[in-house]
Amino acid sequence: MSSHVAVLMGGRSAERPVSLTSGKACAKALRADGYQVTEIDVGADLASRLVEIKPDVVFNALHGRWGEDGCVQGLLELMELPYTHSGVRASAVAMYKPASLEVFRAHGIPCAESCLSTVAAVNERDPLDRPYVVKPPNEGSTFGVRIVRAGDNNPPIGADWQFGDDVLAERYVPGRELTVAVMDGRALGVTEILTDDGFYDYDAKYAEGGSRHVIPAAIHDDVYAQAMDMSERAHEALGCRGVSRADFRYDDTDGEPGKLFMLEVNTQPGMTPTSLVPELAAYQNVDFTALVRWMVEDAGCAR
Q1: Does residue 270 have an active-site annotation?
Q2: Is residue 264 annotated as part of the catalytic site, yes or no?
Q3: Is the pTM value of this prediction over 0.70?
Q4: 113 is catalytic
């Protein structure tokens, strides 16, 4: 057993608060399980901190840019420190949504129609028929995501946009929100996420009572099996390691079975005892401590 674990958390992405919550929960579980744990709120001195404390393994609880997009993974590879979750390539491709969507399509995984554009171009002319969704191409936790509906009078992207010039536009898929956790290449189950307004935004994800999780999702058996299969295939196609989470929209507006569309794969999903992946692990009788322990022992390099 790796005895000394450095837990990376915080960082400087927009998802810093979520990462701090994940990291502290994982550190607490690892300490209770007998590991020596050093918590690191990641900054520019990360490399020197790791040289100083000499951990056996790194638990990467960072979310968002710089921690989830291959940057930290590349540093850990150079330092030859085993780390949890996916490697450089899988992390980078999964984080940049236009690239990951191309991977999914190449492997026969259905995705909504989409195109990469710019703020100026989208505000001048709709890139897709309304309704459609605009989102940053490389952010998580639904930061910047908004639905552009027929009859909206304001420009699709307002002055409060803080995510650069590039914009990913996707056809809006009506219906239901589903997610699947994959652990060691095997899908654990399908969760349906219910919100009051049908939009799983940042507040719905993290505000108390913002969403409700139904496990297993009450959907057609064939669609349930399809979601499991697509999640495993996406995990493999991207070259993911450890745990990942695949997010879907399920259009059952004409009845079941409906049509399933892959949105994205999250290579660094939230890790608190009530987060989506730990909930699905618990559904398979893997408690939070056992899940975190397995992730540490599964850590590695060069993938």
Answers
A1: yes
A2: yes
A3: yes
A4: no
